Amino acid sequence: MPGPSPAKKTLDKGKGKKKAQDSTQSQDYVPPPPPMPGDEAFAMPIREVVKPDNQLRLSDVELNEEVAKMLTANNPAAPKNIVRFNMKDKVFKLEPMVEQTVVHYATDGWLLHKSSDEAKRQMDMEKMEQEASARFQADIDRASHEHKEHGDVEPPDDSRQLRNQFNFSERAAQTLNYPLRDRETFTEPPPTATVSGVCTQWEIYDEYMKDLERQRLDEAAKARGGKKHSAAQHGSNAARTNEHVPTLQSPALLHSLGTLDRMVNQNMFEEVAMDFKYWDDASDAFRPGEGSLLPLWKFQSDKSKRRQVTSICWNPLYDDMFAVGYGSYEFLKQASGLINIYSLKNPSHPEYTFHTESGVMSVHFHPEYANLLAVGCYDGTVLVYDVRLRKDEPIYTASVRTGKHNDPVWQVVWQVDEAQKALQFVSISSDGNVNLWTLTKSELIPECLMKLRVVKAGETSDEDPTASGPAGGCCMDFCKMAGQDSIYLVGTEEGAIHRCSKAYSSQYLSTYVAHHLAVYAVNWNHVHPNMFLSASADWTIKLWDVRDPKHPVMNFDLNDSIGDVAWAPYSATVFAAVTDDGRVHVFDLAQSKLLPMCSQKVVKKAKLTKLVFNPKQPIVLVGDDKGAVTSLKLSPNLRITSKPEKGQRFEDLECAKLDAVVEVARKSDADLAKRS
Amino acid sequence: MVDVAAVDETFKRLQSHKGVLGIIVINADGIAIRTTFDNDLTVQYAALVSHFTVKARSAVKKLDGDNDLKFLRIRSKKHEIMIAPEFEKSHEYYLVVVQDPSRDS
C-alpha cells in the first residue's frame, strides 16, 4: 500500500471538499453571497479557506511541475538494523528479513465462498431448519384436521417446538423427602400457685394516701428526733379515726342536694324572684291612695291540701324562712297536724316537716334561739321543736301528766326574759287559762298566769273576775314597748278584750267590750305604745287606745268575717287584714281613714285565715283554709313610710302620724255625739 | 351519716322538678355512682364535669390560697349545669344537676 502523498495540503472546512480544492488550486477566493437580511436561517454557510502560515507557497510553475513517485514494496519506515542473539552461534546476528507489511485498513467481510467449509455448514443448518419447520406445519395441519373429525383428540404437543416466547414448559423435579420423626423429652414442671384478689381504685388510692401520710410522719419524726415519736403516732391514730363515710350517706351530699334544689327552683321561678326583688307597680305614682298586691310564690304541698293554715310565723334569724302550722278550725273535722317550714328560696318543697298527733293551732319561733319552735295543738298540748335536729319529734311535750290545756291552744308566744335565763313561753287556750311554760332539763313546767272569766258588759274591771264563769281565750299579744313587755292583751270568744299583766294573775288591768262575736286577733302597734287593733268574726276591725276602754277610736267594717289583722312593721298607720271571702285589705290611715288602700281578692273559693308581714321585706304571707300560703308583694303606695331627717326619730314621726289620725277621729266622734 | 332514704327522696324530688333533665353523683375518680342519665351521657358528663370542676377549683385556689370552690353554675344556650362539689377527702364527690330552664313541663 502506498504511503500518504505529501503533495498538497489543504485544510478544508465543512462539505464541498472538491470545490474547496478547486478554489485553492485556482488561488482565487470567491466570497460567499452576502447574507440576506431576515433569512439567516436559510443562508448558505460561509466558506472560508484559511491557509496556515507555515504552508509551503508554491508558484504556478512549481505547482504544475510533475513529480514522479515510485511505489515500492519496502516499508520505508521499517527498521533495517535489527540484531538478535543466535543461541547456536552464541553471537548477535543481523536479522535480514524485516516485516515490510503495513496494514492500513482491515475488515471482515460477510460474503463466503460457496466452496468453503463454513459456507457448507451454514447451508446444512438452513436446510435442517426448513425441514423442521415443514414437519411442524404438517403436524399442525393434520391435528386440526383430526380435531375436526374427533373433537376429543388433544392438540399436538407443541412444547418441544418453541414457536414464540409465550410458550412455556413446566418442569417438575421430585426430590427426596426425609420422613418426619418426633423426639420428646419431659422435664419437671416449675411450681405454680394461683394468687388472686380484687382491688378497687379506692383501695389503691387509700393505700397511697396512707403511705404518703406514713412517710410524712416518719420524716416529721426524724426531724423532731426520737423523743416526739410517740406524739406522731398519736397523730396518725387520730387521723385513722376520721372514718370513711359513703358518699351517698354523707351529710354534705344532702346539703348539696338541698342547695341544688334551690338552684333548680330559682331557675323555675326566675320571673317571680325578679318580681320579688325589683318589680314595683309604676302606676302607683299616678293614683295616690290606692295600691295593689302582686302575688308571688304559692306554698303548697300534697300533705297540706286537706288542712287549713292556722298559723304562720317568720323566722327571726332568716328573712326568707317561715313556719306554717296546719290544722282544722272545725270541731268535727279534726285530723293530725302538720308543720311545714318553708324558705322563699324553695317554694316547691318545705325545708322541714313535722307531724303532730293533733291539729296545729299556733306556732312561734323563739326570737333569739331561732331554731326553737313552740307549737300549740287543738287537743291542748303544747310542743317545742328543735328545727335543727330534723327529727320528726318534739324535744318537749306537755302531756296530761305534766299538765296541759283542755281546749285548743290558740296562740303561743315566747318570752324573752333578761333576768331569768330559762326559756319560757306563754300559751292561751279556750279553756280560759293563760299558761307560762318553762323549759327545764326534762320537761315543760306550766304556771298559770291568768284564768279568764266572763265580764259582763257594764261591769267594772275591778270586780272579782273569779265571780263569773270561765271565758275562752282566742288570741293574745304582748306589748312591744320596752319596759312594758309584761303587759298583754287577751281576746276572748265572748268578744271582750282584757289587758293583763304577767305580774298579777288575779285581775285584769282593763277590759274592752269590743265585739259581739269572738275576737280572732289583737295586735299592738309596732311603734305607738298605746294603740292596738282587734279583729273579730263580727266583720269589724277596731282601733283602740289603751287608755279608753269604753270606746274604740275607729271602726272598720269589712263585710265579712275577719280572719286576722296585723300592723305593718315599717309604719304606724299601715295594717292589713284578711277576710273569709278571700280578700286582703290593706289600710293606711295616714292616707285614707275610711277606705282601704287596697282590697284585693287573692284566692278563689277559699277563706283566708292568717296574715303576717315580713319584718324586713315588703311582702305579706296569707294562709287559706285549703292549705296554701300565698306571698304577696306590697306596691309602693302600701309601704309609704316617714323618712326621718337629722335629729328626728323614726318612731316619733310615725307616732305623730298616728296621733294626728286619732285626733281627727276623736273630733269627728265628738261632733257626732254633740249632734245626737 | 344520714338516712339513705332522705337522700333518695331528695333525688326523686329534684328529678321531678320541671326542666330537670338529670342528676349525677360522681365520685373522686370520675365514676358516676348514681345517675338518671343513660350510660353514654353519664360517662361523658362524668369525665368532662370532673375535669372541669377540678380546673375551676384550681383557678379559685390559685387566686387565693385560702379560698375554695363551693358551687359552679354553667348557663349554656340550652341548659344550665349546676355542680355542687365536695372536696373533703373522706367523701369527695361532684353532684351535677342538668336543667333546661326554658322548658315548661
TrEMBL record, chain A:
Record's keyword annotation contains Repeat: yes
Cellular localisation: Cytoplasm, Cytoskeleton, Cilium axoneme
GO cellular component: microtubule; outer dynein arm
SMART domains: WD40
Pfam families in the cross-refs: WD40
WD repeats: 512-554
PROSITE patterns referenced in this protein's UniProt entry, alphabetically: WD_REPEATS_2, WD_REPEATS_REGION
Molecular function, one GO term: dynein heavy chain binding
Gene Ontology process terms (BP): cilium movement; outer dynein arm assembly
Region spans: Disordered: 1-41, 219-247
SUPFAM superfamilies, alphabetized: WD40 repeat-like
Keyword terms, alphabetized: Cell projection, Cytoplasm, Cytoskeleton, Dynein, Microtubule, Motor protein, Repeat, WD repeat
Family indicated by similarity: Belongs to the dynein intermediate chain family.
Protein name per its UniProtKB record: Uncharacterized protein
Taxonomic lineage from the root: Eukaryota, Viridiplantae, Chlorophyta, core chlorophytes, Chlorophyceae
UniProtKB/TrEMBL annotation, chain B:
Pfam short name (any one): Robl_LC7
Subcellular localization, as worded in the UniProt entry: Cytoplasm, Cytoskeleton
Transport recorded as keyword: yes
GO cellular component, one term: cytoplasm
Gene Ontology biological process terms, A to Z: microtubule-based movement
UniProt KW keywords: Cytoplasm, Cytoskeleton, Dynein, Microtubule, Motor protein, Transport
Listed GO MF terms: dynein intermediate chain binding
Protease is among the record's keywords: no
Domain (Roadblock/LAMTOR2): residue spans on this chain: 7-99
Role this protein plays: Acts as one of several non-catalytic accessory components of the cytoplasmic dynein 1 complex that are thought to be involved in linking dynein to cargos and to adapter proteins that regulate dynein function. Cytoplasmic dynein 1 acts as a motor for the intracellular retrograde motility of vesicles and organelles along microtubules.
Family statement drawn from the similarity comment of this UniProt entry: Belongs to the GAMAD family.
Protein name: Dynein light chain roadblock
Organism, scientific name: Gonium pectorale
